[in-house]
Amino acid sequence: MTSRASENLSDLVRDGRLPEATAELEEVAQQFRIRMTAAMRDAADPGVDAQFVPTPAELTIRPEELHDPIGDDAYSPVHGLTHRYPDRVILHSTQTCEVYCRFCFRRETVGEDGTLTEAELDAILSYLADHPQIHEVILTGGDPLVLSPRRLGRLMTRLRALPHLEVIRFHTRVPVVAPHRITPELLEALRGSTTYMVVHTNHPAELTEEARGALARLADAGVPLLSQSVLLRGINDDADTLTALFRGLIRNRVKPYYLHHCDLARGTSHFRTTIAEGQTLMAALRGQLSGIAIPTYVLDIPGGYGKVPLTADYAQSLGAGRWRITDWQGNVHDYHDPDHQPLDTNSEHGQNKSGT
Ligand code: SF4
Rounded to whole angstroms, how far apart are CA atoms 325 and 303? Predict the structure, then answer.
């Protein structure tokens, strides 16, 4: 078995993740990139495989699905930057990732040769210098931890030089999907800044021994660790799997932060639950998990209107899968669930979800 990542259909067949590369899968591969690391293959769990191995279901593009589901482009004052909220920005340092998740909300752009040039970085730094109300920079992409420690260190030094920037936050999947990248050199590049790391992980089987080691190295270096997960039909949409995931994170010094409702990215409806199903799950978790292990269930309102907790205050059911959602500024938006069957609350599975 190779330690190289599987980067196309032939690799996935070679590495035992697909029986064959069918014509339908070739069509999927032409539209959306493929990458699964050896670390994730070694996790050897169907709930992990399903996040990285393409299926023909990705060819089903529903009318409500979007190229840019969370509206990054509409709030981009300079290339590589999204400024949606007054006090914080997203800096898209690269478009590359160690893995390409089949449900990714940026699946139309990840994998492009999008590492920022020096000139683009200069323009971003100049925008940040001109906006002293910005206190936090979120480094994402792609995955910022695919940058070399040297390159990352240079970027951190330039960000640290801006006196109004108080926090640098990383959104990354690397500690879990490519734990070997958490090296002493990388930890050294992070030193000297108030740095938070939000680790993307969706299934307890992702927390392999190597991943737990990487999380320990980060925690021992004093980096506060949070998590974000995506609620995924057939992968983690049951209370037992989510409980195991969040307990595993807390054990490894990672505070569960966000559970995202799956965004309206093209070709991802097979992963999407309904909001009602997500709320039922959250109610079930409250019954069996300590408060510090419970994340906030959130929706990024399609179109770029920001993130909102999916509590009764923000989400009002209009019936038949239609919802009225209120954004952070009090504006009201419509949202439509996919046409999935509702949960069977009489099954053993459903009873599991109903306790609070
Ligand atoms: S690691 Fe994040 S940005 Fe990259 S493909 Fe997965 S979800 Fe998308």
Answer: 12
Nearest protein CA to atom 8 of ligand 1, as residue: 104
Ligand 1 neighbours (beta carbon < 6 A): 97, 99-101, 104, 106, 110, 141-143, 173, 200
Q: Whose CA is nearest to atom 5 of ligand 1?
A: 100
Residue 341 C-alpha to ligand 1 middle, in angstroms? Answer: 28
Annotation says 300 is catalytic? yes
Atom of ligand 1 nearest to the CA of 230: 7
Residue for token pair 């965004």: 263
Active-site choice (85, 127, 196, 257): 85
Domains of the chain: 52-354 (3.20.20.70)
Is 131 in contact with 168 (CB distance < 8 Å)? no
Look up residue 57 and give its amino acid: A
> For a pocket test of ligand 1, which of 98, 99, 227 has the largest count of ligand atoms closer than 8 A to its C-beta?
99
Catalytic annotation present for 238: no
Beta strands in the chain (DSSP E): 81-85, 88-92, 136-140, 167-172, 195-200, 225-231, 255-261, 296-300, 307-309, 315-319, 322-326, 332-336
Positive or negative: CA dihedral 249, 174, 98, 5: negative
**Nearest residue to 294 via CA among 356, 354, 342:** 356
Distance 110 CA to ligand 1 centre (A): 7
From first to last of the 356 residues of the chain, give the pLDDT tens digit.
578 999 999 999 999 999 999 999 999 999 999 999 999 999 999 999 999 999 999 999 998 888 888 777 788 999 999 999 999 999 999 999 999 999 998 888 888 777 888 999 999 999 999 999 999 999 997 899 999 999 999 999 999 999 999 999 999 999 999 999 999 999 999 998 899 999 999 999 999 999 999 999 999 999 999 999 999 999 999 999 999 999 999 999 999 999 999 999 999 999 999 999 999 999 889 878 999 999 999 999 998 888 999 976 778 899 999 999 988 777 899 999 988 666 565 554 444 433 34
